[in-house]
Amino acid sequence: MKIQFLVYWLLAFFRIRRHQRNIQLLASELQSIQLDWLYYLLFFLLGMYLLWLNTVYFHIEFTDKITAPAYLLASFFIAFYAFKQKEVFAYSEPVLKDLDNIFETTNETLSQDRLEEEQVQAIKNRIQNFMSSTEIYLDTGLSLPALAHATGYAVHDLSFVINRGFNENFYQFINSYRLEKAKILLRSADCQHLNIAGIAFACGFNSKTVFNTAFKKLTGLTPSEYKKAGSE
Description:
By secondary structure, the chain is an all-alpha fold. It contains eleven helices and no strands.
């Protein structure tokens, strides 16, 4: 039983890490679906496991006293976040099958002949024109299936083109447009009344922290520094 728990714990840990990589292939907003709370749950379980070992083998007085409250706290934690968590993959059955195929296909194993290079370039150009003309990336909840529906391409084909043609995953692809939009708004005279959070939300981000981190990674400056540099 002790070995089974540790094996389960490790498998669960790596499954969550895999999930967090996978969702970057389909979502432009990760906070609500990246399931960070499951990491805390796993460490709660690990702590409960250690307390159980103490109860059975070691009988350390201090830990004996906190075992029952710790179990109760963990139960409330699990219940709270389980009810709070929204559905991650709320898509139709055909789309879910496409997503399964995408998740199982890594960049290293993408089929070279799924689309010809000429097709990839043609679709890439049409997607770029579509993104610029519609600014669909401003939709905070934009997903790969939603963009596929809007452009008329199959989910798997669109994912292939984004990965192969743009050399990015979906999350990076959408946020690159949002960040370019942010650079324009930060230096626009018409948007000087907006604070940094306002700029972030106007560009499709739903978190100022995520926006600040992504912007500095792209430009080497915080949004505030970039805005100040543009006004000098």
